[in-house]
Each structure stands twice: as structure tokens, then as C-alpha cells.
């Protein structure tokens, strides 16, 4: 059996020279307040063994990582019909680009660019009875943790400067790809992004992607084997802004990053790992998180390729 704890401790030493690289995101004012030197990893393997290092028990803003969880929830309702409203191709453009959406007539490239995630938010607003609290409960159940919550200050902070997301939502609405009130959809979207979790909670909530669709604590089936295959493929091709190719090349695992500095990565049938370090590279991915995951797949000599 692989001793992941030992490997993570080795990575913790090897990663130190990278601690001065990158910058904390300032696009959401509230997020810029975080201490830049936080660093944590939590890995849970399919033998259900937990291994962690550093600040892995401190909550942080999961931001775009939430897009995978909202998609998983929407996919339960719409299945393959989801793809009539949002595509499955990498965008090759910044995650908040308006231009591509205009010339592709309101159908976002994939569910992980902002426009795509806003369409998914709209699907959840249409299908959930109390959208925000039902979605929060969905996430809490995945992680088997009741303390997971929205951060209202972060949601409000994003709303105050969310001009570009408002523009995307309105453009989508003009193409008929938003069913609900634009403000309600944006409120849902800002809240889902503001969810805070520790590395441990994040790794536990994504465990079903490594475990054929079944959750860690209660063995609930969230998605089918075939749906897991599809969403893992989407994470592999679209999960890292316009650096998904680089991540596949260096790490070789499906995953998703967020501007809060978190990264989730999945080795199907083996483990699920969450990293957190707030300093980002110019593409918006955590410098230390990406490096740590590259070291992890190199050290274990296991990736999906
Ligand atoms: N809430 C952020 C936005 O919409 C998410 C950004 C990210 O983590 O990629 O801009």
C-alpha cells in the first residue's frame, strides 16, 4: 500500500522554494485579505485512509471548484440534456470572456467557464425548491459535514464588483439561455462560489469521483459510473482555465482549480486530493498546488496516463 502521508511530507519540503512565486487574487476584494503563505494538502484514498499536511484543516473560499459540484447536482436532474444548453469543449479563452459567448450565440463552451457555470446555476434555480439551501445541503451531504457554509461577506464582495458576470448573465438571457430572473441566478452563483471548506472537507466531498459515484461516509450513489467518466473527462480538459493542457501534461489527473487558491484532483479508483495555497500564477492556478500535484504523480509514478 502506498504511504501517502510520507509522500506528502516529502513534498512539503520540496515545495518550499516556490513559496515566493505568484500573487493572491485581488479580483474579489474580500479574498485579497487572506494570508498568502497558507499551504495545505489532504488526500483520501479508496481504502478510506486520510493523509494530510500543513493548513489542511483551515477553511478557504472554494470559488470555481464549486462549479463541479453544481454541475454534478444539475446532471442528476437533466442528464445528457444538460449539453443542449452548454458545451463540453475547452475554451482556449479566459474564463470570463464575453467575446466567445457572443459569436457562439449564447451557448457557453463548457460548464467551467463563468458563462457555463451561470447556465448551470440557472438550471439549479429552476429545479431546486429552495435553491441556495438545497444546494448547500447537497454539498454538506457529499462531505458529510454540517459546518460547510456560504461566506456572505465574500458573496457580497463579489456581487459589488461582479460587472462582468452580470454582463455574461444578461448576454445569456438575451440569447434565451437563462430561464429565471438574472439577479436571482447571479445571487445563487455568487453564493455557490463563496462556499468555504477545508482541504479535508473538499477531498471528502469529491471522493465520489474516485469511487465510481459513491460517497465516502454513507456510500450514497451520486452519479452513475458512466456520468462519473464524463465529468472526470470534463475536469481533465476544462478544469484549469486556459492552462488545462499544461496541468494534464505536468500532473496527469482530472481536477479543478479556483481563484481562492484551491485545487481538487482525482485519481479514479485510487484517491482524491485537495491542495490549498492562495498565491496564483498568471493563468489563475495556485503555484504551490500545481507543483505539489506534479510532485505527487511523479513521486507515486501513478497518473491516469
Ligand atoms: N466567483 C469567481 C468569478 O466568477 C470565480 C472565479 C474562479 O475561481 O475562477 O469570477
Write the element-wise H/E pattern from the N-terminal end onward. HEEEEHHHHHHHEHHHHEEEEH
- Strand segment tally: 9
> C-alpha Rg, in Å?
18 Å
Q: Given the C-alpha coordinates, what overall shape results?
A: globular
Count of helical regions: 13
> Which percent range fits the helix content?
40-55%
Biggest sheet layout: 5 strands, antiparallel
Molecules bound to protein: glutamic acid
Strands of the widest sheet, in order across it, are 3-2-8-7-6
Give a brief rundown of this model.
The protein is of the alpha+beta class and 305 residues long. It is 45% helix and 11% strand.
Would you write up a description of this structure?
The radius of gyration is 18 Å and the shape is globular. Helix 7 (163-174) packs across helix 8. The strands form three sheets. It has a five-stranded antiparallel β-sheet, with helices on both faces. Strands 1-9 form a two-stranded antiparallel ribbon. Helices cover 45% and strands 11% of the residues. The chain has 305 residues and is α+β, with helices and mostly antiparallel strands. The structure holds glutamic acid. Residues 63-64, 95-96, 114, 158, 165, 193, 258-259 line the site of glutamic acid.
Amino acid at each position: 500500500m502506498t504511504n501517502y502521508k510520507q509522500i506528502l511530507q516529502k513534498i512539503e519540503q520540496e515545495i518550499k522554494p516556490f513559496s515566493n512565486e505568484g500573487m493572491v487574487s485581488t479580483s474579489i476584494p474580500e479574498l485579497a485579505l487572506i494570508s498568502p503563505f497558507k499551504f495545505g494538502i489532504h488526500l483520501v484514498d479508496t481504502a478510506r485512509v486520510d493523509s494530510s499536511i500543513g493548513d489542511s484543516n483551515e477553511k478557504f473560499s472554494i470559488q470555481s471548484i464549486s462549479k463541479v459540484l453544481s454541475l454534478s447536482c444539475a446532471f442528476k436532474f437533466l442528464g445528457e440534456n444538460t449539453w443542449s444548453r452548454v458545451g463540453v469543449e475547452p475554451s482556449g479563452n479566459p474564463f470570463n470572456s464575453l467575446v466567445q459567448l457572443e459569436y457562439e450565440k449564447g451557448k457557453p463552451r463548457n460548464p467551467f467557464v463563468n458563462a457555463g457555470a451561470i447556465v448551470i446555476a440557472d438550471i439549479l434555480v429552476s429545479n431546486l425548491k429552495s435553491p441556495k439551501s438545497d444546494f448547500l445541503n447537497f454539498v454538506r451531504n457529499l462531505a458529510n459535514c454540517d459546518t460547510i457554509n456560504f461566506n456572505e461577506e465574500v458573496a457580497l464582495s463579489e456581487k459589488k464588483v461582479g460587472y462582468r458576470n452580470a454582463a455574461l448573465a444578461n448576454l445569456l438571457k438575451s440569447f434565451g439561455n437563462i430561464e429565471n430572473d438574472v439577479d436571482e441566478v447571479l445571487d445563487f452563483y455568487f453564493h455557490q462560489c463563496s462556499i468555504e471548506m477545508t482541504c479535508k472537507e473538499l477531498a471528502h466531498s469529491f471522493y465520489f469521483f474516485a469511487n465510481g459515484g459513491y460517497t465516502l461516509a454513507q456510500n450514497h450513489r451520486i452519479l452513475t459510473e458512466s456520468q462519473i467518466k464524463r465529468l472526470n473527462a470534463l475536469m481533465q480538459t476544462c478544469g484549469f482555465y486556459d492552462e488545462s493542457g499544461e496541468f494534464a501534461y505536468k500532473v496527469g489527473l482530472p481536477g479543478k482549480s479556483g481563484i481562492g487558491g484551491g485545487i481538487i484532483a482525482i485519481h479514479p479508483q485510487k484517491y482524491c486530493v485537495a491542495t490549498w495555497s492562495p498565491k496564483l500564477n498568471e493563468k489563475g492556478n495556485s503555484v504551490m498546488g500545481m507543483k505539489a500535484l506534479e510532485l505527487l504523480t511523479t513521486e507515486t509514478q501513478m497518473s491516469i496516463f
